[in-house]
Design a protein that fits this description.
The complex is a heterodimer of chains A (410) and B (141). Helices cover 10% and strands 37% of the residues of chain A. In chain A, strand 1 (20-23), helix 2 (32-38) and strand 2 (44-47) form a beta-alpha-beta unit. With 410 residues, chain A is mainly β. Chain B has one domain (21-138). The longest helix of chain B is centred in the first third of the chain and has 15 residues, at 2-16. The chains are: A mainly beta (410), B alpha+beta (141).
């Protein structure tokens, strides 16, 4: 007991030992850099509202760096605004604007260099080249930030949240728009992306490269140039996300390329040119998703194998499925297809005739895209019907043997 | 009239048989190999096949992998000049650097320079290895 009190006392002592430095026009310390010089590990710096133009601010001590009334730190289009070069730094409540631009060394709003346990919370990042950049970092938290940029087509701009060679990151509840990729992961493992909103980015809302064992849950990806891309990756969990309104020739709700052993569960794909595009993917389970009002629900290239597509709803898509080969290595089971015209005599909720999700016309347009011109013409409808009865062009084993009669309540 | 016709025909023949690259539209065109949208005008690449078709790529690595895996008969290769914004130059005339701190979209990490002076200058800056086009070409199978 005595020992415990002793430890508690020591702890209290060590806490009370840390000092707080206030920065602002009404305080003795007027500049952030001055405060950083005065501070030692464990101190708190509170920056009061105002505009601070001090070039690059380098934090190389373990400090808590707080903004009161969103002080503006301006990089004047020349500098990397805040560089973090210490563990355990907290950055909270700032408005960080105008980082340097388009040079070869990727200037950022906030960049963390090879550090752990850094927290970046409640900041507004406006008009930076890269927003937040984590390099070689571990156990960091990026939460509740608003990251805006105004990138245009044909222009070089960085990513909103860019993570490289890191692990154990938490990216929570950020809003990102106008960057190249909203969130970009490269060689990032064991990390979670949760409750973010990423829209109107020029390329992808979220982009995974070579990043294994991650999860992204309950995010909204809307109106991005080309949707979301998960590439060259293993073991990614994708739950409860919205992929919406990613329109364009090369836009996909979700682009999967060279990915394996992943799980896509309970997402909604609505109003995309293609809901999911898969190439070179294997052993993926796609379960309980809704595909609604897309041009193509799923495009599954012939290079995909051992994928399971179970219990999904396909509603109001122009084409539910399309593929470019005749080899069928993926299984479809117990999905609801709104184009299913079969019957259910034994009333068990499962259609008595198998459903061919691949329409003749989907195969034709895959080979000759300009054939789309004939869509909904009388001849095509006729051919489609006859193909359903006697499959000749479409692979006859491309079927859902147990199509559901009613859509799943998802 | 006859001479005009000949002129017209030669004009058509020449314009069909162009050896010029088509500019890459950043953030809207896809890489033929990896399907990613091309967004970085420092690492893009393009090829013209002997039949005159154009293919665009976001990384030299993608272009060479695509060429070799599909056995494309290539007439010309083009690459983006690292020091300019989205300018395509003939690959054979370029000087290359690989590795170091060069970060290209698909990890080919190869940058092209239009002169050996620039190559030398950036070799130390980027801590990279110099290469010729032939070496770059042969490094992919």
């Amino acid at each position: 007991m005595k020992k415990l009190i002793c430890i508690l006392f020591l702890l209290l002592f060590s806490i009370s030992n840390a000092k707080t430095i206030e920065v602002g026009s009404k305080f003795p310390v007027k500049k952030i850099k001055q405060a950083l010089q005065l501070a030692v590990d464990g101190d708190t710096i509170i920056v009061n509202g105002g505009v601070y133009k001090e070039g690059n601010i380098l934090i190389n001590k373990k400090i808590i760096f707080l903004g009161k009334n969103f002080p503006i730190i301006d990089g004047q289009r020349k500098f990397e605004v805040i560089s973090v070069n210490a563990d355990n730094v907290v950055i909270k409540g700032f408005k960080i604007i105008n980082s340097g631009y388009a040079s070869l060394d990727d200037p950022c709003g906030i960049k963390v260099y090879d550090k752990s346990f850094v927290k970046i919370e409640n900041n507004i990042l406006d008009n930076n080249f890269f927003g937040i950049y984590l390099q070689n970092s571990r156990n960091c938290l990026i939460k509740n930030n608003k990251i805006l940029a105004y990138g245009k087509q044909e222009q070089l701009i960085g990513n909103g949240i860019h993570c490289w060679k890191s692990d154990n990151l938490q990216i929570i509840a950020n809003k990102i728009s106008g960057h190249r990729d909203g969130i970009y992961f490269e060689f990032v493992t064991q990390s979670i992306i949760w409750r973010n909103i990423s829209n109107k980015n020029i390329r992808y809302g979220l982009h995974f490269m070579f990043s294994n064992d991650d999860a992204y849950i309950t995010n909204v990806f809307k109106n991005n140039g080309a949707g979301v891309a998960v590439m060259f990756t293993k073991n990614v969990k994708m739950y409860n996300n919205y992929f919406e309104e990613n329109w364009g020739d090369s836009a996909y709700g979700l682009l999967l390329k060279e990915i394996a052993d992943s799980y896509i569960f309970n997402n909604k794909f609505a109003r995309n040119t293609s809901g999911i595009y898969m190439e070179g993917t294997s052993r993926i389970k796609v379960e309980k998703n809704v595909f609604e009002s897309n041009g193509w629900g799923m495009k599954i290239q012939a290079s995909c194998m051992d994928n399971e597509i179970v219990n999904n709803n396909y509603l109001k898509n122009t084409f539910d499925i399309s593929t470019n080969g005749s080899l069928v290595l993926n299984t479809f089971n117990s999905n609801y297809w709104d184009k299913y015209e079969g019957y259910d005599l034994d009333k068990n909720g499962v259609g008595d005739v198998p459903y061919h999700p691949l329409s003749l016309f989907a195969v034709l347009t895959e080979k000759t895209p300009s054939a789309m011109l004939l869509y909904r013409s009388f001849m095509i409808t006729l051919l489609d019907k006859s193909e359903k009865v006697l499959p000749s062009i479409t692979p006859d084993n491309f079927i859902d043997k147990t199509p559901l009669m009613k859509s799943l309540p998802l | 009239m006859k001479s005009f016709l000949i002129l017209l025909i030669t004009f058509f023949v020449i314009s069909c048989n162009s050896n010029r690259p088509k500019p890459i539209k950043l953030n809207s065109e896809n890489c033929e190999f990896c399907k990613m949208t091309i967004a970085n005008g420092k690492f893009g690449a393009e090829l013209i096949t002997q039949k005159g078709r154009y293919y665009k790529f976001d990384d030299v690595a993608c272009m060479l992998q695509y060429t070799k895996s599909n056995q494309v008969l290539v007439k010309m290769f083009f690459v983006n000049d690292y020091l300019k914004e989205n300018e395509l130059v003939t690959a054979e005339k370029c000087f290359f650097l690989k590795g170091g701190t060069i970060n290209s979209p698909m990890r080919g990490n190869i940058a092209a320079f239009s002169s050996d002076k620039e190559q030398k200058e950036f070799q130390t800056k980027l801590n990279a290895e110099p290469m010729t086009w032939q070496q770059v070409y042969d490094s992919y199978k």
